[in-house]
Every structure is written in C-alpha cells, then in structure tokens.
User: Fold this.
Amino acid sequence: MSTEIVVACPDCDALHRVRPLPDRGLARCRRCGAILSSGRRGGIEVALVLSLTALVMFVIANSFPFMSMELSGQRVQSSLLTGVTQLWQQGQLALAALVLFTTVVAPGLQVGLMLYVTGPVFAGRVPWGAQRAFRAVRLLRPWGMAEIFLLAVIISMVKLGDVGEVIPGAALWALAALVLLLAASAAVLEPRQLWTRLETAR
Amino acid sequence: MSSPAPCAPAMGTKIPTARAAGLLNCHVCGLLSRPPAAPAGALRCPRCAARVRTRRADSLVRAWALLIAALLCYLPANLLPIMTSTSLGVTQSDTILSGVRYLLVEGMWPLALIVFVASICIPVLKITVLSLLLVSVSMRWQWRPADRSRMYRIVDLVGRWSMVDIFVVSVLVAIVRMGNFAAVHAEAGAFFFAAVVVLTMLAAMSFDPRLIWDATEERDG
Assistant:
C-alpha cells in the first residue's frame, strides 16, 4: 500500500501526489508555490498537553488583574475585559463586540474546542460533533487576535510612559504565554493527521 | 510527486487540476472527494462535512461588494478621530495618522514604524492588491499568475495586523479612567477603521485565488 496521497493545491487547484514528509519538511505547489503539507513531529498528545496548558493560561488571563496605572496617588486596576465594558458604556457597541470576540471568545473557543477533540481522541474515542468542532477551530484561526492585542499592549504602555506609572499584572503574562502556546499547538500538529484519526475511528 | 521546493512548470505543459478531474477539494480539511452522481442538496465533504464547491460561491461579486464597502469606510476611518484623551482639563483628539506622528515625535521610531505599517501601509496594500486581483480575474489577464497568487497569500496573511490600533484604543480606554483627571474616549473613527479591517479580511476570504489560474488554463486548453 502506498503512503502517498493525492491533494489539490488550495490556491490554484493543481493536483499533486504528496509523500509523508520528514520533520520540518515542506511540500509546495509546483505551480503557484502554496504550501501543500508540512512534516510535523508532534502528535495529538503534544497538541493535547499544549492545549491543557493554554486553558490554564486562558483562565488566569481572564480572572487576574491585567494592568494597573498609578497617577498622582490614584490607582486604577483593569482586567482583560475592562476595555470591552468601557467601550460598551461609551456607546461603541460594535467595537466592544469585536474586541470581545477577537481577544476573548475566539481564543477561548480555539483552546476549548481543541481540548474537546484531542482529549477523547487521545483516549481512543471520537467525541460527538468532533468534525464540526475541529472545523470551527480552523475557521476561527484568523479571528483569534491575542498576539495582535499583545502588541497593542506594548504600544499603549509606551504611549502612557510619560502620563503615569503602568504596572503589568499576572493576566498580562498569562496572555503572553497563551499566545506562545496557541502558536505552538498550531505548529506542532499536522491537521491532516487528526482528520484521518477522526475519519478512521468513525 | 512531492516537490520540496517550488519549481516552474515547463511552458506548454498542462497541469491536471481537481476541477478538470471532476474532484472537489475541501477548503477545511483538504480531502479530495468525488461528488456523487446524483447529489441530493448541497455537496458536503465526506470527512469533515464542510460545504464543498469547485470554486467559492459568487467569489467575485462578494469580494467586490465587501471591498467597495471597505473603501466607503476608508476615508472616515482616516479623517475622523479614533479617540479623544482628556488630561487635567486638556482635551486632545487623535486620528490614525496623528497616533503615528506622536510616537515619532517621542523618539519611539521602531514602534512608530510598526504602527505606520500596520495601520497605514497594510490597509492601502490590501485594498490595492484585492482591487488588482479582482480586475485581473474579471479581465482574464494572463499576467504572472504565480506572483498574483503570492500577492494574495501575503494580503490574506498580514491583513489582521491592522487591528492593532483598535486594540490600542481598547487598552487605553481600560487603563486611563480617572474621571476628570485623565480619561480616554473611543470615537467614530475607530468604528470605521475596524470596519475597514473586518470588511477587507472578509473580502480576501471571499476571493478564490484559483480563479487566477482558471483564466490561464482556458487559453491553454
């Protein structure tokens, strides 16, 4: 039995036969250069462990103080969600919803759904709705913007440098860890591997 | 064959495509499937149950509509203030561009550069490239399809980073709230700027890059 599979390039539709790749190997489309598949060493177990850690970081990021600012004796503390509630109170409902979705809901769903799929699959079962859940993980990816939010935090701290003293809280470090863990769990697992598991177990 | 590096196909050789072979490529899980002879209702991927089509539905119409909507929001996004800050009775309005200027004046030029690229260059690049791609596909251009594919991938990849200025407003609004002493308010410009970012992201997602290559195949075949 051949381990080759036939794939179509997502960007130009050209058909290719792709062999399993070595770790960090990359197969590109011979016509348009799009990435067809990549060799990744990590399996479902690694993705599961990373997602579990990410869940802990997500909970910390949402429950501990995010940042506080001291200005002539006054001290104001804010959490990750304060921006959302403030925007809402200022009447910027659409902005509040967008910030809530991209910084809290989408990353949270990514972590939660990833756990929902990889946990049972690791134990040898396929959970109800696994296909739909893993599909959502994929579709959510461009909308989870925790890493962009982190860049915004750095820019804001610089902007506030001469206004008052800004003290980072535990949630900020947890968010930074979450960004790294989300990137790592996306880099470690070749989605095709999980799709095949979901297919054969059904 | 697996190709570790991209290599240009010889001129004149016709590359087999999924559409020509009567196969459907799932955009979610990447499974190639053969559609049933008598399909009942919408075609779905047998592995992940996502809707599958040979090409994205109404790609050009949807992408144009979203892009035009983004263009309409572009001017108010850049002309209207995105926030006003009050500090000890002094009120100051900031637009996207004045935020960059502030960082530059303060000597934070690496940050000024990042914000300039994310908030000014990327939206302009996105709108220009998407317009170019849409025109080129509508006019069935044969011009440099591989480069146009690459342009699409870059725009699709970097587009979300324009959100950084919206998040800056959200962070400042959260931290600076000391009543009359110091406060930050989000303004209408932020809404329009966020609309530009989201609409261009959706436009890029609606555009089907395979259309670039369809035009070149029609000439060959």
Notes: Confidence is low (pLDDT under 50) at residues 1-12 of chain B.
